[in-house]
Amino acid sequence: xxxxxxxxxxxxxxxxxxxxxxxxxxxxxxxxxxxxxxxxxxxxxxxxxxxxxxxxxxxxxxxxxxxxxxxxxxxxxxxxxxxxxxxxxxxxxxxxxxxxxxxxxxxxxxxxxxxxxxxxxxxxxxxxxxxxxxxxxxxxxxxxxxxxxxxxxxxxxxxxxxxxxxxxxxxxxxxxxxxxxxxxxxxxxxxxxxxxxxxxxxxxxxxxxxxxxxxxxxxxxxxxxxxxxxxxxxxxxxxxxxxxxxxxxxxxxxxxxxxxxxxxxxxxxxxxxxxxxxxxxxxxxxxxxxxxxxxxxxxxxxxxxxxxxxxxxxxxxxxxxxxxxxxxxxxxxxxxxxxxxxxxxxxxxxxxxxxx
Length: 356
Fold this sequence. Notes:
Elements: H1 9-26, H2 52-67, H3 69-73, H4 78-106, H5 117-134, H6 137-158, H7 166-175, E1 181-182, E2 189-190, H8 198-216, H9 220-237, H10 250-273, H11 281-285, H12 287-303, H13 307-323, H14 326-349
Antiparallel strand pairs: 1-2
């Protein structure tokens, strides 16, 4: 079937919705009172919040498939595309390291961390882009299966308990104290965006590349079938590897991949084919800028001592007696997202798109 030349607004919308969800779950008013769907599972399990980051990586893969693969198929010179992809990935990783540094300087109780969300995005983007340039779709599918198989064996061999699993032990050995959390009783470290778990995160990105290929050729039915197959496989695989975002287990890759295929199919059908005007496009066009900018804003407000008093007086003081402590905490997050929606909407209207 001939490839469509239509711009896939659905991808921008879905990316934007994902970034908005990232801001919402990262910025409650009170971390002690977070509504359960807006929290990550403590270890095993998968809440709605646990779907957000893999969905973003899935969309990274979709975007790579839409932006790079057609240029390669058209005979474009490969070297400049490789160089541009690596440079962009390094900028994303550098921005993530900068955010971690600012957080360390701005928040008294924070410690310096080396891994992070943007670092993982940058690495997965770079590898996916290089695979798009230099491999065929079937090869990428083989890489996907190999990643899950090898990583699955690593997990079974090293255990999947907190702190003692091989993934956490490697992160502690490589990054030392510069990880997300350290067990005060044992001194063992763990990072949810650590080194070994980047391998299955790349598998999630490769699922997105496969989805992007089907999107380009208009094979909507395959998106739906893939959603069903991944959900079923993920559900059964959890009996061997529990659903776990911290370890990014194979079952988690398949389960979240199934939801990602399904959401892409729904949004593509609604936005691209039926003309629905769903929110999210403005966030999607300035995704990294919104994520990094909102993070810097949070750290600045904390450093200035504004966040606590503002939340207490403008939200908690009058909402808590009426609705309990969870409502003002969630409303703070919604208002935070709304403020940044106004920012990116203004940028969109003025044609300002910050590309990292």
